[in-house]
Amino acid sequence: MIRTGACDAGSTWKLKLSPNDPAMIEVEFQVDENIAGHTWRVRLVQDGGLVFKGARVTKAPSGSFTLRRLLPDTLGRDIIRARAVNALTGEVCIARAVLNG
């Protein structure tokens, strides 16, 4: 499953959820702002619980960053939320995807 959207100042985001095996979900969260060297504060939440908090820096040539994580596949549906805030500009990206399983 892939969801895409726009951030509040023109950057774009993509949130991809892929069943990895019967017990895991591969999560890929990408933000593209077309400017290399910016630091983003990133949070990743699964079913209401924080699973990642850290920083990522956009890289040349695309001016994007990608966060990848393997998360446990819980019973029923998994709700994954990602939030990124540009430390320099304050731009906010908010993504959400649901994997039914």
Task: Walk me through the structure.
By secondary structure, this protein is mainly β. It has a single domain, classed as C2 domain (Immunoglobulin-like), CATH 2.60.40.150. 0% of the residues lie in helices and 66% in strands. It is built from no helices and eight strands. It has strands at 2-6, 12-21, 24-32, 39-46, 49-57, 64-72, 78-86, 92-99. It has a four-stranded antiparallel β-sheet, with no helix packed on it. It has a four-stranded antiparallel β-sheet with strand order 5-4-7-8, with no helix packed on it. Strand 4 and strand 5 (49-57) form a beta hairpin. The radius of gyration is 13 Å and the shape is elongated. The relative contact order is 0.30.
